[in-house]
Structure formats: structure tokens, C-alpha cells
């Protein structure tokens, strides 16, 4: 009895693509921590399905880059950035709930 594989996809097609991006203005002291982090992460070895990039500060450019990303698109997007908070020296994690904000909440 001859058996056939159920999936004929390459392993790279089965693994979801991940983009880790540092966001911020370079040379702006602690506000560029996302870029400092992505610089350090780029020096490390990552699996083929993980990409680390300096996304800079241009939200429009980043959106265009993501829209024109290779197929398949990214399944996960991790953004690293510095924001003003009450307590310094702490790391916060936020997850998108999937809710679309009201038009008044969006920045233009």
C-alpha cells in the first residue's frame, strides 16, 4: 500500500511569518528604544520565518511596506517602541483586541 503525504507544502509555507520591528526616531534619547532593541535583535540569528527590521518613524511608509510584503503576509507583527509612562524603566506589553477605534481616536 502506497501512502501519499497529506500536505504538499514546503515547511516554510507552513510556518507563519513574523516581523519584529523597532519603531521610533533615531537619536531622540529614550524615545528610540525600539530602534535600539531592533538593532540588537538584528545581530542575533533567527529562524527563516522571523524578520527583524528598523521600521523608523514613518507610519505611512511602514504600512506601505507591509502591504507590499512578500507572500504569504506576516501572521504576527511585534512592534518595539518607547512611550512616556509614569514609571521609568518598566516594560509594558499591549495586545490588539481586534476592535477598530472610532474615527476621532485615529491619528492622521
Indicate the topology.
Layout: H1 11-14, E1 17-23, H2 33-42, E2 50-56, H3 59-67, E3 74-80
Parallel strand pairs: 1-2, 1-3
Quick summary:
With 108 residues, the chain is of the alpha/beta class.
Provide structural commentary.
This protein is an alpha/beta fold and 108 residues long. It has a domain at 23-73. It is 21% helix and 19% strand. The protein contains 3 helices and 3 strands, in the order αβαβαβ. It has helices at residues 11-14, 33-42, 59-67, and strands at residues 17-23, 50-56, 74-80. It has a 3-stranded parallel beta sheet with strand order 2-1-3. Strand 1, helix 2 and strand 2 (50-56) form a beta-alpha-beta unit. The chain is globular. The termini are far apart. 10% of the residues are buried.
List keywords for this structure.
108 residues, 3-stranded parallel β-sheet, alpha/beta, single chain, 3 strands
Give the SSE string: HEHEHE
Structural class: alpha/beta
Instruction: Work out the helix count.
Output: 3
Instruction: State the shape.
Output: globular
How much strand?
A: 15-25%
| Rg over alpha carbons | 18 Å
Amino acid at each position: 500500500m502506497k501512502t501519499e503525504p497529506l500536505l504538499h507544502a514546503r515547511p516554510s509555507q507552513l510556518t507563519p511569518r513574523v516581523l519584529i520591528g523597532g519603531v521610533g526616531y533615531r537619536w531622540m534619547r529614550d524615545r528610540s528604544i525600539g530602534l535600539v532593541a531592533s538593532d540588537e535583535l538584528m545581530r542575533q540569528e533567527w529562524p527563516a520565518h522571523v524578520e527583524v527590521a528598523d521600521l523608523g518613524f514613518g507610519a505611512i511608509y511602514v504600512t506601505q511596506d507591509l502591504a507590499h510584503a512578500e507572500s504569504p503576509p506576516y501572521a504576527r507583527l511585534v512592534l518595539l517602541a518607547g512611550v512616556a509612562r509614569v514609571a521609568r524603566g518598566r516594560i509594558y506589553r499591549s495586545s490588539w483586541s481586534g476592535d477598530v477605534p472610532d474615527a476621532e481616536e485615529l491619528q492622521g
